[in-house]
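Limitations
The structure tokens in this dataset are predictions for the assembled complex, not deposited experimental models. Users should treat interface geometry with appropriate caution, especially where small molecules or nucleic acid strands are included. An illustrative entry is reproduced here so readers can see what is and is not provided.
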Amino acid sequence: MNVLEPLVHALVNTVFDVLPIAAILLGFQLVVLRRPIPQLKRTLIGFGYVLMGLALFLAGLEKVLFPIGRLMAKSLTDPAFLGTAAATWRDYGWVYAFAAAIGFATTVAEPALIAVSIKASEVSGGTITVWGLRTAVAIGVAIGIALGAFRIVTGTPLHWYIIAGYVVVIIQTFFAPRMIIPLAYDSGGVTTSTVTVPLVAALGLGLATNVPGRSPLIDGFGLIAFASLFPVMSVMGYAQLGEWRTRRATRARLARAMQD
Amino acid sequence: MRAAMMQLLRDLLRTLRDSVRDLMPIALVVAFFQSFVVRAPLPDLGGLIAGALLVVVGLTLFVRGLEMGLFPIGETMAYGFARKGSVTWLLLFGFALGFGTTIAEPALIAVADEAAAVAAQGQAISTSEAAQRSYAYGLRLTVALSVGAAVVLGVVRILKGWPIQWFIMVGYLLVVAMTAIAPPEIIGIAYDSGGVTTSTVTVPLVTALGVGLAQSIRGRNPLLDGFGLIAFASLTPMIFVMAYGMLIG
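Predicted assembly:
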């Protein structure tokens, strides 16, 4: 009974969540384009899947992703685990390590990122490789979330980090290959998946709750902001590196040709 | 009929494999830290496994359902509106698409609820369930409006062929300016909402609109002009949510 009740509750809420997009698409199709819905039965079955799926996902979220984020934050900041009651930011090494590991692991397997990497490698004519780009973005997210955890531990203001990041992004924009710029800007948004976001959000809130002197409201958010800013830098940085290596190789070849 | 059932089952299994692959890295990292660093068993392991099953099955059905129904219609329409029809309808459709997909975004629902709970704990809003629900819903509406606006702006940019970096820089400046005047407790949530909005539902449909549009206009490069809608959609929520914080604060 107590398993079914939240599920039914979630299902009812889900209808209101999915209704707008269904109404918009069907409305435009029927009223503006005046075309019938292709494969109506299939579409309706799909709609049923979406409702069920979202309800199950949201119910599961409360049982696994939020608790795991909170639990890891709690156990890694426990004074007994740290071995000291008056911990400074240096004592939280495992927190940063966990943040970086979660960031790297969830990003490197992200399907959206794989698709973008394949496209980027085609366009760049091979100076950007699929694996190189995936690693670059994953390292970007890892550094981002680890730095975000450091910020929560130290309680320093979020906006200074983000503004500094913006300055770096703007400077890089002037030097990065022109083709990569829209892709790099987009890569910030696509790396944070539906599974990663709740876990990382709970991790940040858990850290802010457990580290002495931090408030969840002021310090708890911001990890996702870090995770979406750093890949922009790492993608442009990787493209710059690729361009630089190509140029150096060309110059070396030219020099050799001159000597001959 | 049997062949159709088998096909359906195969598709579901494929999507299931993708969902497991999404969750696997998290399970591995958490298992590693629990066994070698914290050296403690996970409390309520049964509950966690049950939850993980719900998440995997839920995500599988959700994505499969989108692929069966909404994505094909949405993509055909995005291409259709991009290729012909008036600019007014194109912009209206862009706004509706951004708004509708964001309201249905699971990650945003999750984070908005969490943000409401935190705001209630911190006494920024009343602790009653109704107040929390209206705060979370207001947050989601704000983000959805901002994504709708972002798609409209992005479509205009693609139509005109303006370079993306100027828009991003102006956006950054607006974020910085808003940060200076917004109440401090909204800033973290606002900054996060940029990354949260763009996932399962929004990215495929919005990208289809951008790439379709860039392909249908002569002299536009799909890569240079087609991408960038997502970047707009992850920048405007920051500005709009800070404005929301100022309004209710």
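Some entries come with short summary sentences. For this one: The mean pLDDT of chain A is 84.
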